[in-house]
Design brief:
Organism (chain B): Thermococcus eurythermalis
Largest sheet of chain A: 9 strands, mixed
Oligomer: heterodimer
Largest sheet of chain B: 5 strands, antiparallel
Number of domains of chain A: 2
Bound molecules: zinc ion
InterPro entries (chain A): Thiolase, Thiolase-like, Thiolase_C_2, Thiolase_N
Strand order of the largest sheet of chain B: 6-5-4-7-8
Largest interface: A-B, 39 and 38 residues
CATH class of the largest domain in chain A: Alpha Beta
CATH topology of the largest domain in chain A: Peroxisomal Thiolase, Chain A, domain 1
Keywords (chain A): Acyltransferase, Isoprene biosynthesis, Transferase
Strand content of chain B: 35-45%
Number of helices of chain B: 2
Shape of chain B: globular
Number of helices of chain A: 14
Strand order of the largest sheet of chain A: 3-2-4-7-1-8-11-10-9
Protein name (chain A): Acetyl-CoA acetyltransferase
Protein name (chain B): AcaC
Structural class of chain A: alpha/beta
Chain lengths: ~375, ~130
């Protein structure tokens, strides 16, 4: 079977980009990735994006971005899997390369969230839930995560303080990332004193609404050599998996198991031939602190009910056994929803090349996990230093 | 800002939303909402099943930053209710002091207004849950 390697990575800072539109951000990230690989053309483009239609009245992002990036008459499409759109787009790009149909593929993740009114953005994010049976009742995305958070705390005896540790860790790492939205460390008290947005979930348990774009270039080792891309730049896509669960939170078999993540991770581990203990760092989808805890459990890093314990024991810091969110995670780097999975990929590439601002020493294998919905559509990808 | 045409969308579900009608498959699995394929066993032999509407709160939150269309009602309690027949249903709680809500609190279904004051002008009704009226 063919192998896939990432030979270029680029991104824009995450933030409120009042002066830049969707296409500006996407093109900038894409050109950065192409420059990084030292190439000026690609065979196809996959765009990870969740809600550009409602947010900025723009669909057909494949054509828009390929056109404005000057990529010519290539095939280009948008991939949507709610907040996991970016992770899914990367995997579709890898599949295109592995299939042999395309040799050099560009993937860009983009979301422009600050061009809409906040309560409308809240509504559009809710489109990832079940419109008829969740959004109908006034359930925001935050509210659905709050329901899971309260149930988790009750079931396993955790406090709001325990979950706040995930936010503290993310900010500690994000403080060193020049591309992060929040570059300031925070204390547990900062989280606890922030206002409730859906009790017991507070403002600082949640990732911010923001804009951003990230991009990668994927090809085969043979083609990378032919293109003259230096080997130090290569990062192998060693494993990947993807699965869905019920879109409606209330229909879950178990409210506290991210079953889709579990299945996706099993597939990715098998393909890469690794176990959780072989992974040097984890970029998990901490859109809310509770999701970081549940993700660690689903990925097999912590036992069921012990995800938050890992944070309490100090095992998620950059110099500990299971570093997570090495460049700030969704919480501090920011969560431009459809772009997030591609940001995670870019950050994994930087870690594995040894170029990360908060470097995990001798990192050889890294994992990214991207959640769409309240756990309804999840991608897990594993990357390895070549 | 424009919204989908709401009237047909909501009338399609009014029986389920006013009377809490879900589904039951040939093997006895009950679920809510109704769907063509049983989520437990995959059977396509599914008939309607009307729930008693009694249940218990298993988790809840207070929505303080609602999606557009619900700003007028904030803050409001939203809960996961485990029905006595099995399935879990998401709905707002009503006629209750937020301080009184607790794990295991007994509730019963009631038909209430879900929202109005929207540009489409229609008033939506549906199920909510409240502490039982004795
Ligand atoms: Zn059945």
């Amino acid at each position: 079977m063919r192998k896939a390697v990432i030979i270029g990575a680029g991104m824009t800072p995450v933030g409120e980009h009042w002066k830049l539109g969707l296409r500006d951000l996407a093109v900038e990230a894409l050109l950065n990735a192409m420059d990084d690989a030292g190439i000026d053309k690609v065979d196809s483009l996959y765009v990870g994006n969740m809600i550009s239609g409602p947010l900025v009245e723009q669909e057909n992002l494949g054509a828009l971005i390929a056109d404005w990036a000057g990529l010519g008459n290539i095939p280009a499409v948008k991939i949507e899997a709610a907040c996991a759109s970016g992770g899914a787009a990367v995997q579709e790009g890898v599949k295109a390369v592995l299939s042999g149909l395309e040799d050099v593929v560009a993937v860009v993740g983009i979301e422009k969230m600050t061009d809409a009114w906040p309560s409308d953005t809240t509504r559009y994010l809710g489109y990832a839930a079940d419109a008829e049976w969740e959004l109908f009742h006034g359930a925001s995305f935050v509210a659905l995560n709050a329901l899971v958070m309260r149930y988790y705390m009750k079931t396993y005896g955790y406090t709001e303080e325990d979950l706040a540790l995930f936010a503290v860790n993310a900010h500690a790492n994000g403080a060193k990332n020049p591309y992060a939205m929040f570059k300031r460390p925070i204390k547990v008290e900062t989280v606890l004193k922030s206002p409730y947005i859906a009790d017991p979930l507070k403002l600082f348990d949640a990732s911010p609404v923001c804009d951003g774009a990230a991009a990668v270039i994927i090809t085969t080792p043979e083609k990378a050599e032919e293109l003259g891309v230096p080997k130090e730049k290569w990062v192998e896509v060693a494993g990947m998996g993807r699965a869905i669960d019920t879109i409606n939170l209330a229909n879950r078999e178990d409210l506290l198991t991210l079953k889709a993540a579990k299945i996706a991770a099993e597939r990715a581990y098998k393909m890469a031939g690794v176990e959780p203990k072989n992974i040097d760092f984890f970029e998990v989808h901490d859109a809310f602190t509770i999701m970081a805890a549940l993700s660690l459990e689903a990925l097999g890093v912590a036992k069921k009910g012990e995800g938050a314990k890992l944070a309490k024991e100090g095992q998620i810091a950059i110099d500990a056994d299971y570093p997570i969110q090495t460049m700030g995670g969704l919480k501090a780097r920011g969560h431009p929803v459809g772009a997030t999975g591609v940001y995670q990929t870019v950050e994994a590439v930087l870690q594995l090349r040894g170029e990360a601002p908060s470097q995990v020493p001798d990192a050889e294998v890294g994992l990214t996990q991207n959640i769409g919905g309240t756990g309804s559509n999840i991608t897990v990808s594993i990357f390895r230093r070549v | 800002m424009s919204r989908p045409m709401q009237v047909s969308r909501y009338w399609r579900h009014f029986r389920e939303k006013y009377r809490l009608i879900g589904g039951k498959c040939e093997n006895g699995h009950v679920f809510f909402p109704h769907r063509q394929v049983c989520p437990v066993c995959g059977s396509r032999n599914v008939e309607e099943y009307e729930f008693s509407g009694k249940g218990k709160v298993i988790s809840w939150t207070i929505v303080r930053n609602p999606p557009s269309g619900f700003e007028y009602y904030k803050p409001y309690p939203l809960a996961l209710v485990q029905l006595e027949d099995g399935p879990i249903v998401l709905a707002q709680l009503t006629d209750v002091d937020p301080e009184e809500i607790d794990f295991g609190m007994e509730v019963e279904v009631v038909t209430k207004k879900i929202r109005e004051f929207e540009e489409d002008g229609i008033i939506l009704y549906g199920y909510k849950f409240r502490p039982p009226v004795k």
